[in-house]
């Protein structure tokens, strides 16, 4: 496999036939700033250096819309209203046709995905990889012999997901999945300590990761959200 020479500078990555060629593509201000030299793995779209790994991906993490009880129902009337607002926001603020959608296989996530992705005409697939840890009471995502998943196994599953996700993706999932995948993306042990954290991941809220940065976490006030 051929790795691509690359530099990470000022929040962006530039590539070249070698590192000198990549350096020549930076502007003067970027050349004088902090630069990390490394390579890109084209299979996973991952930038890596001696002490850093960055997935060069944009990931929109969407918690499922409101439901009326804990067990696995479809979304409520309020949930449909939330989906409508989020679909409108995504349509006007992202190059949405470039994204591929995913959801866990629970009713609440699948119905949220069907509503939003249907409105946006974004293809999506349902996969239990995108569910909560398998020690939670969500039987839709578990085989008979998979009623427990250790924290280590859950985090390894998230690492595997990051490897195969396309460069732009939208994932409809659950609170703990969203928090832990966001932490994996940015290499942060606890995103709850970041200034973007507002105390919770509400229903139908958006968390947006671009490369190794979190633009926002658990946002529902999309009318006033700046990208």
Question: What integer value in Å does the Rg equal?
Answer: 19 Å
Principal-axes geometry comes out as: globular
Helical coverage, percent range: 25-40%
Please tell me the CATH architecture of the largest domain by its name.
Answer: 3-Layer(aba) Sandwich
Low-confidence stretches: none
What's the CATH class of the largest domain, please?
Alpha Beta
Distance between the termini: 35 Å
Number of structurally distinct domains: 2
Layout of strands and helices, then pairs:
Elements lengths: L3 E6 L2 E4 L3 H5 L4 H4 L3 E7 L4 E3 L4 E3 L2 E6 L13 H17 L6 E4 L3 H14 L3 E3 L24 H14 L3 E6 L1 H12 L19 E5 L2 E7 L8
Parallel strand pairs: 6-9, 7-8, 7-9
Antiparallel strand pairs: 1-2, 1-3, 3-4, 4-5, 6-10, 10-11
Helix pairs in contact: 3-4, 5-6
